[in-house]
Amino acid sequence: MTIRLSPPPSPDEWSDERNSPQKSSYYDRNLRQGPALIRARKPYLVKNLAVGAGLWCFAGAVYWYTLRAVGQDEFEDVKVPDTPRQPTKSN
Questions:
Q1: Residue 60 falls within a domain, yes or no?
Q2: pLDDT in tens, 15-57
Q3: Which UniProt keywords apply (predicted)?
Q4: Which is deepest, 22, 54, 74, 84, by most CB within 10 Å?
C-alpha cells in the first residue's frame, strides 16, 4: 500500500487573493452586527449586564462611603494661619 502525498503549495499560492474563499465577517457593509454575531453574544448578555451592574454598584458605594467619611472630618488638627504669608522680596 503506497500513500501518495501532494507537494505543499508554493508561497505564491498561499497569498493568492483570487483563490481564497470570501472572507466572512460578523458585520455587514454598514458595520452593524450581523445575525451570527448576535447569536454568538446572546449567551453572555445577561452575565455581562449582571457583572457590569455589580461593578457599577461597588464603585458607587466606594464613592459614596468616601464622601461620607471625608465629609464628617472637621479638620481640627490642621493649623490655619491667622494672616497669609507675605511673599519674600528678592533683588
A1: yes
A2: 555 555 556 688 888 889 999 999 999 999 999 999 999 999 9
A3: Membrane, Mitochondrion, Mitochondrion inner membrane, Transmembrane, Transmembrane helix
A4: 54
Residue 9 lies in a domain: no
Give the number of domains in the chain. 1
Residue 64 included in any domain: yes
DSSP result, the chain: -----PPPPPHHHHT-TTTSPPPP-SB-TTSPBPHHHHHHHHHHHHHHHHHHHHHHHHHHHHHHHHHHHHHT---TTS---SSPPPPPP--
Range of the structural domain that residue 54 is part of = 46-72
**Number of alpha carbons in the 13 Å side-chain half-sphere of residue 45:** 7
**How far apart are alpha carbons 25 and 18 in whole angstroms?**
18
The C-alpha angle 33, 29, 47, rounded to 5 degrees, equals: 10
pLDDT tens-digit readout, 2-15: 777 777 766 655 55
